[in-house]
Amino acid sequence: MPTLSLHGARLRTRCVVAALVVALIATAAIALPPSARASTGVLNPPHSDAGLDTDVPPNGLYDYLVVSVGVSVTTPGGFLLFVQLSDGTGTTFIAQGSRLVNLRTGTNAVDVRIPGYAIRQSGFIGPYQAQIILLNGTFAFLGFGLYATGAYLPTAFEGQPARLAPPHADAGVDMNGNLRFDYLAVDAKVNVGRAGTYTVNGVLRDSTGTTFIAQATNTTSLAVGAGSVRLRFAGTDIRVANLNGPYNVSLDLVSPAGQQIDTGTHVTGTYFLSDFDGLAAAFAPLSPHESFVVDLDGDGFWDNLVVNAFVTVTDPGYYAVQADISAIPLTSAVRAWLPAGNQLVQLDFLGVDLFNAGGDGPYTVDLTLRDDRSRTLDVDVHTTATYFAVDFEPSPPARWIPPFVDSVRDIQGDGLWDELVVNTTVQADRHGTYTWDMELWDSTFTIPIGTQNGEIDLSSGLNPVSVAFPGLQISASGVNGQYEVNLRLFDSEDRQVDLGTFTTAAHLARDFQGPPGRLTRPYFDIGVDRNGDLALDVIAVDVPITVPRAATFLLGGVLIDASFTPVAFNQQLVDLPPGLTTVRLNFSAADAFRTGQDSAFYGALQL
User: Where in the sequence is the domain holding 319, given as residue range(s)?
Assistant: First the structure.
């Protein structure tokens, strides 16, 4: 049973002994986007395994089981290895690990770490069965293999760095002395073997564990020994759920490296809804809702069906009231700041929608009151008087009017079109503020090319509208015209009042202005030790950018590890002259290597 030590031949990527090693290791620590490298290779047994004790000084227990996977590479590039560890029969899963690496041509050995605490928890004695999967940088499958490890005792591995240690505790907490609880506190007990910053997540459900009520999380620094982490579940969430206790709490404990290391449950004491603060607002029980119709332009047709909903507010704030006529169906919603007291919230349904629906009243209106977190605080029902659909306005309050005309515009005078311009007209029955959006599609409405939207104040009568689609969107799509255009018009409550379509003239995508800059392969990366402590501070990625004309650009990037988790971010705002310029993104090595695992990374770049 071989043993590896951090003081031996294998070092973490960020621990280096010389500047040359720094450069070599860090240069291999970035996997370019998949299309950059069509790597090929196969699994190349025999593989090997060993226990790894990362403690300084070593404590004689393995923190990881390291499976060294042999890979024979034909075409160098990025490779992704998954190792799933099971008991010796291959029937019971224990844990898994993954590794993203750049490999050179020839024979390579790739170390994949399996967390030791999971093996200790499993209680299985080795040998263990390892299922190995090899993918290339484009996620193409390259190989699958089985490997039997050496013999190990589960007690040879380090236990969890921390674990949940029931019994846990709970209590209602009154913050303002009104003798009602503002929140339900659950104190999760934790036994810590290794000091660090841990996260406890909790989900509160009903006593059967089936109905979700609320969730809470707490990230805190814990010292070695017994500790407690408090989770606070808002009384409002419990009130909204309308469920008495006891409650079932699902708990999970997350390590400083972001790995789930333990789970547990807790059943609270008995609580009643009346133990918690009342809801911040509700429909007024003594004020019946109202409804009526209005003819805004005096043409004898009802333009709106108006519903006045009455709300009693205890805590001032933003609230949303939604009214639904489900039989049609139609919806009207209003979000507004409501002060304390009895408040009136006015909602209205467009007459044209009721006319087009063809259903006569009385209408049953379902009312829903929500707080600013979209939690449902109350529901109610209102029934209108009798109305006939034919008495409502048959035309929308504003609508697109042909003709629709398109043209192209060369702003820079370089012979390429900078914009495709759509000119049309909106006819409004009365003054108002509307929003619009226009979608540009290929001729079959299958490929979206671009979208433009905005807000417009319309006067009564005809209102000219001009919308420009950037030529860059059309050039980038590579789609030649004719193009189809969808035109939508919305009122001040975001209800669609009209939809129009038209077909543009024929255009070639190549005639439109291309991008003002483009990412230019190849990219380069290097590790940087800024303070001479032989540990990487930064993973620097040099990104060449080709610019036809001077402009300001925002270059952003993210590093993604072998578990497909974004681990480090950086962006730079730069003024670039014409030609080829290299811009450096500096990613925090501490963020990138927070799991403690050697790794290459996928780099995603955006200009």
Answer: 281-391
